[in-house]
Amino acid sequence: MKQDKIEKIAKETFNYDPKDKGVKSLLDYEDDDIQPEDLGKVTKLTLIDLLESRNIIYEQIMAEMVMIREELLHRLEEAKIDAERIGEYSVTKAKRVSFKTSLEEAEVLGAVKKSVDTDQLKKLHNKGIKVPGVQTTIYLSVRRLSQEEAEK
Description:
Elements: H1 3-14, H2 44-78, E1 83-86, E2 89-99, H3 103-108, H4 118-126, E3 134-144, H5 147-150
Antiparallel strand pairs: 1-2, 2-3
Helix pairs in contact: 1-2
């Protein structure tokens, strides 16, 4: 994935621009900024300032995680694979289908219990039948391999 697209995602999602030299990354902050035992000794305004500064750090970390996940997903797609073992991790491109189908639309398709029958809608969708309100989400799953899996 091009760096521009990754940076665009970070900027749109978290209002974070990695090119902004005035913005610190997590690595720019010291661990000793404030200690838990010092929290009771500072003013409420200082606590609010600390909260806000940590919120900015959190948003930056989340933006960086989005960029990293998008890059990993792009590399899997570029290699035309859905899963890969990387070191002691299993990285899998996962897909989730969700239905925003109304009760009336599901009734026409015969996919109604007392609510929308998503199992039936999924079967119809998988058979290639057009189902209104279908949304597909592709996401990345990263998990540490067990010792046994890592030794294979």
